[in-house]
């Protein structure tokens, strides 16, 4: 098997020495080329070119941002070429996609599991979400957020550029500061889906392709615990931003069962083929933990069996 290993050298939890160990292990079992990313969306470009270069497998080492870039590159493979399979190795601070797949969180263990799956011919197809708007046409692997969480992602990105290290604690502290300042108290969102009554005056909306939404350290955060790669999209949206109720919902998200399908202060939809979110004013928007800018409308749809995964 011929494979392309796309490595983000800025990945949070890997070192040059550990990357060399992974390269050595993989190269012993398949024909391997290594490419390091040098700028934003470089991984997307490399993955887009993989099929034309004859690669059967693309492997990534990085966080969820690197995964998202590689996935979007693979999904833009020309129709006349066979799209390579994909294997993601954890190298970021959260690694939500890798963990949602049930893969090991240690890069060396994850590499061993991937190589064993490749030897045994084990693969599986997973569904993805697709974002369409006036500004975008791209896929997401686990979540898209409109409002509060995207504001948090935007602020954490700013802090990272100034030298702060991304961590679960940083995300939590930024989210709390924004909530207490009232930054999330803007009920501007409206949500539509086929066969559903329109819901409006929402404060925050999250669309997921799997569970969990993210992790607080080792604890999964589950606003949509029924969400799965093999189903459509799930929705969680806040209808109120009262401190006591929001705190209760956060505790539910951190529990083993997650947030129930229905309750006070929120809307929850399961297994939707498409969801449209609009806002009366531009609001922050993110996919897979990457801030995309402020938007007034996004169209999200479920793409079943979009990607073949090794492992």
From TrEMBL:
Q: Name one GO cellular component term.
A: plasma membrane
- Cofactor(s) needed for function: Mg(2+)
Quote the InterPro entries the UniProt record gives.
ATP-NAD_kinase_N (IPR017438), Diacylglycerol_kinase_cat_dom (IPR001206), Lipid_Phosphate_FormReg (IPR050187), NAD/diacylglycerol_kinase_sf (IPR016064)
What Gene3D superfamilies does UniProt report for this protein, alphabetically?
A: 2.60.200.40, Probable inorganic polyphosphate/atp-NAD kinase, domain 1
Q: Which residues form the DAGKc domain?
A: 1-135
GO MF, one term, reads: ATP-dependent diacylglycerol kinase activity
By its UniProt entry, which Pfam families does this protein fall under?
DAGK_cat
User: Which family, according to UniProt?
Assistant: Belongs to the diacylglycerol/lipid kinase family.
Can you say what this protein is called? DeoR faimly transcriptional regulator
Per the UniProt entry, what species is this protein from, by scientific name?
A: Streptomonospora alba
């Amino acid at each position: 098997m011929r494979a392309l290993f796309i490595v983000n050298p800025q990945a949070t939890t890997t070192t040059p020495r550990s990357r060399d160990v992974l390269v050595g292990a993989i190269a012993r079992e398949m024909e391997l080329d290594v490419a390091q990313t040098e700028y934003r969306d470089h991984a997307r470009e490399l993955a887009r070119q993989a099929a034309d270069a004859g690669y059967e497998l693309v492997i990534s080492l990085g966080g969820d941002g690197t995964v998202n870039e590689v996935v979007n590159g693979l999904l833009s493979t020309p129709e006349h070429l066979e799209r390579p399979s994909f294997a993601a190795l954890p190298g970021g601070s959260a690694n939500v996609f890798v963990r949602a797949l049930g893969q090991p969180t240690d890069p060396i263990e994850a590499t061993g599991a991937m190589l064993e799956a490749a030897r045994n011919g084990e693969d599986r197809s997973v569904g993805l979400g697709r974002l369409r708007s006036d500004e975008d046409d791209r896929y997401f692997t686990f979540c898209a957020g409109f409002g509060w969480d995207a504001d948090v992602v935007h602020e954490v990105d700013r802090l990272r550029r100034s030298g702060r290290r991304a961590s679960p604690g940083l995300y939590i502290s930024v989210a709390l500061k924004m909530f207490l300042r009232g930054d999330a108290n803007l009920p501007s969102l409206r949500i539509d889906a086929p066969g559903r009554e329109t819901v409006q005056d929402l404060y925050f909306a999250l669309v997921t392709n799997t569970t969990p939404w993210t992790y607080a350290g080792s604890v999964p955060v589950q606003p949509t615990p029924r969400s799965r790669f093999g189903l459509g999209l799930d929705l969680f949206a806040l209808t109120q931003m009262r401190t006591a109720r929001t705190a209760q919902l956060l505790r539910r998200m951190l529990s083993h069962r997650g947030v129930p399908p229905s309750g006070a202060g929120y809307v929850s939809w399961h297994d939707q083929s498409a969801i449209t979110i609009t806002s009366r004013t531009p609001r922050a928007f993110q996919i897979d933990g990457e801030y995309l800018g402020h938007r007034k409308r996004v169209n999200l749809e479920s793409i079943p069996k979009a990607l073949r995964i090794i492992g």
